[in-house]
Design a protein that fits this description.
Number of strands: 0
Shape: elongated
Largest sheet: none
Radius of gyration: 24 Å
Distance between the termini: 61 Å
Number of helices: 12
Strand content: under 5%
Structural class: mainly alpha
Helix content: over 70%
Order of helices and strands: HHHHHHHHHHHH
Length: about 270
């Protein structure tokens, strides 16, 4: 990383210094503002989204046409932080990147992936950190990834790739299957959404306590929409739910359990 800075043109370092100084000053001013509001010396500040918009506008105005170049450099720097497992430095880099280019959905997806998937995976295996601290950081990074994904979606409401990454964090790390189903439902009608999104709504509703019947109705509807939905996983899930709800034989789908690797499913 030191060699990277030595090779970096001085003007880029100056621009980066201005950007980082601006963010650091903003943090200091925020603390001062909070103290003055508490002392009734200032009126309460506007909503968070308005503050974020003002911060982005100030940063964009400072850098002008250099935004993309600076952002590209910071992405390379962030990859170095990822390689060295420097998660806090990576988070700070992406805080600037997403402020510089908030409409680039790839930046939001990448930071959610880095923190929600990679950083949490590192916390699961890094035995140099005490177990209680690893668990704390795991939850912190996972929840931070969710928050960043939601911020990214605010900036890019039609983004399917941010939602796909958010769903992975909910599914693989937080094990929140109700939230996973909700995100896949948001995905269904978006441009670029995976074809499996609608099926995944049903799969994860089936794992969401109290919503199993909704999952059965949803998957059964998909089954009768057409043979393109007759995947092995969908048939297995429907038949498991038929058993759960003791559906009458005449109302069950006609398919037998498909041959899948692993333990044989429970037969009716």
């Amino acid at each position: 990383m030191k060699a990277l800075f030595q090779k970096t043109p001085r003007w880029i370092l100056v621009v980066l210094g201005l950007a980082i100084f601006g963010l650091a000053r903003a943090s200091f001013e925020d603390r001062m503002r909070e103290e003055m509001v508490a002392s009734s010396l200032l009126l309460p500040p506007p909503a968070r989204d308005a503050i974020q918009q003002m911060s982005q506008s100030a940063l964009m105005g400072t850098l002008g046409g250099l935004r993309t170049l600076v952002s590209s450099y910071l992405v390379l720097e962030a990859f170095g932080h990822f390689s060295n497992k420097e998660w806090e430095d990576l988070r700070r880099s992406y805080a600037i990147i997403t402020s510089l280019e908030p409409r680039d959905e790839n930046h939001w997806r990448d930071v959610v992936w880095h923190l929600g998937i990679n950083a949490t995976a590192n916390m699961e295996i890094d035995e140099s950190i005490p177990e209680f601290e690893r668990k704390r950081r795991f939850n912190e990074y996972a929840l931070l990834a969710v928050d960043l994904a939601e911020q990214g979606i605010e900036q890019n409401p039609e983004s399917s790739i941010i939602r796909q990454q958010l769903a992975e964090v909910y599914r693989e790390k937080l094990k929140d299957y109700c939230a996973t189903a909700r995100v896949y439902k948001e995905l269904v009608d978006l441009p670029g959404a995976p074809q499996y999104s609608d099926r995944f709504v049903g799969y994860f509703l089936a794992k969401c306590p109290g919503r199993e019947r909704e999952a059965y109705d949803h998957l059964r509807r998909l089954y009768y929409e057409g043979e393109y939905n007759h995947t092995a996983s969908l048939i297995v899930e429907i038949k498991n739910l038929e058993e759960k709800f003791d559906i009458l034989p005449a109302l069950r789908i006609p398919d037998p359990y498909p041959d899948l690797p692993g333990p044989a499913p429970r037969q009716p």
